Amino acid sequence: MSNNSLERLSFHEVSTMLSGASHADSRMRVIGHDMAMLRSGELLFPSMVRPGVPYIMEDSRIGMLRNGEARLTINLIEHKMRKGMLAFIGTGSIIQMEEVSDDFDLCGMMISDGRMKGALKDGMPTWCVGNATFFTLAPSPSEFDFVGRLFDAAWTLIGQERFPDETLNGIIYAVVHYYNYLKDTTLGTSIRQMPRSREIFERFITLVNAFGRREHDISFYADKMCITPRYLGTAVKAASGITAKEWIDRAVVTNAKIMLKYGDGQIAGISDSLNFANTSFFCKFFKRLTGMTPMEYRKL
Length: 300
Prior knowledge:
Elements: H1 11-18, H2 24-27, E1 28-31, E2 35-38, H3 45-48, E3 54-56, E4 60-67, E5 69-74, E6 77-82, E7 86-89, E8 94-100, E9 105-111, H4 113-120, E10 134-137, H5 141-158, H6 165-192, H7 196-211, H8 218-225, H9 229-240, H10 244-262, H11 267-273, H12 279-290, H13 294-298
Antiparallel strand pairs: 1-2, 2-9, 3-8, 4-7, 4-9, 5-6, 5-8, 7-10
Helix pairs in contact: 4-6, 5-6, 7-8, 7-9, 7-10, 8-9, 10-12, 11-12
């Protein structure tokens, strides 16, 4: 993995990471520059993602957990996944694996926004492209099995020497719309019953993920949501148990970690990119939240 540019875990990086791995050809296939498919991550996953390190998703991930469990932070929120669950991770999401069981096994697709738009055309759900969306689903065994059959069909198709691109797009269309169906039927009720404080919190986190790199003041987010900073702070604390300022700080430090780990910019430049008044303020902020200086983190 190169340290000369911001790590975005793209198709190129995935191919490079797996080029020397045993079993790679039988477990992962890359189709051009806009799609890849992971048949099984049981042996390959440890070489692709390191626990405790944040990554930016350069494309969408549609997956199913066939075995094991994992604890991960996506777009600042901690989630737990277990065998039998489905997940969608949208372009621009920041993911950090915290813990992964030894038997963790994930199957899924990596799809660029361009490929997604081409496959779905006018039938594209709003959550599909470019908005750092993340959700998990807990389908019935029969629903999970059906998704597995769709993934198996895609894997069989791309394993052929030649295949029509329209057929692959058709499978992508089927997978996305089946996820959308499951999302509407399983999450729709809970969303309609969501308390007002939770609704505000969800909107707040979406904005923090979009603007948190440079906007560190709760007033900015309150203005965006047309509510007072006091009301926003109260709602966020009630819904999450964590203050709004802490959520903003988490977004800033996560972006700082990515820039430090995968960029070669000077600390002063990173400080400026994150909208700190000066480098000293940034260094004190980073050490307060992480327990180490920016340079110490970069050298890990």
